[in-house]
Design a protein that fits this description.
Blueprint (H helix, E strand, L loop, with lengths): L1 E6 L2 E4 L4 E9 L6 E7 L6 E6 L6 E3 L7 E6 L4 E6 L8 E8 L11 E2 L3 E6 L1
Parallel strand pairs: 2-11
Antiparallel strand pairs: 1-3, 3-8, 4-5, 4-9, 5-6, 7-8, 9-10, 9-11
Length: 122
């Protein structure tokens, strides 16, 4: 079992930055690929970014590429999502997830956090 707890969300204005954190506990953090997903009002959960077990590779949704950066520190059991130049359409609940296979589909992930709300005003 892996427990995931997100933090760092909030209300910001367009163009601002936020850094989300996801703290993991339980099984060895480095055994899992990590991903960030988001779910906006009335929308399905969508892939934002993921990162390999050692942090050497990462992937991004086109909508956030160049603005968001995913990173991890296995010694701290933490993964981050740095979000710059935020837009109103980034408003959503952001979830981190852990998976042995991972990828862009939520069904590939084994463990999920409860999420943190990000609201971007125009």
């Amino acid at each position: 079992q892996v427990q995931l707890v997100e933090s760092g969300g909030g209300l910001v204005q367009a163009g601002d930055s936020l850094r989300l954190s996801c703290a993991a506990s339980g099984r060895t953090f480095g055994d899992y690929r990590m991903g960030w997903f988001r779910q906006g009002p009335g929308k399905e959960r969508e892939f934002v970014a993921d990162i390999s077990r050692r942090g050497s590779t990462s992937n991004y949704a086109n909508s956030v590429k160049g603005r968001f950066t995913i990173s991890r520190d296995n010694a701290k059991n933490t993964v981050w999502l740095q979000m710059d130049n935020l837009k109103p359409e980034d408003t959503a609940v952001y979830h981190c997830a852990a998976g042995e296979i991972a990828g862009t589909r939520p069904s590939l992930y084994n463990y999920w956090g409860q999420g943190t709300q990000v609201t971007v005003s125009s």
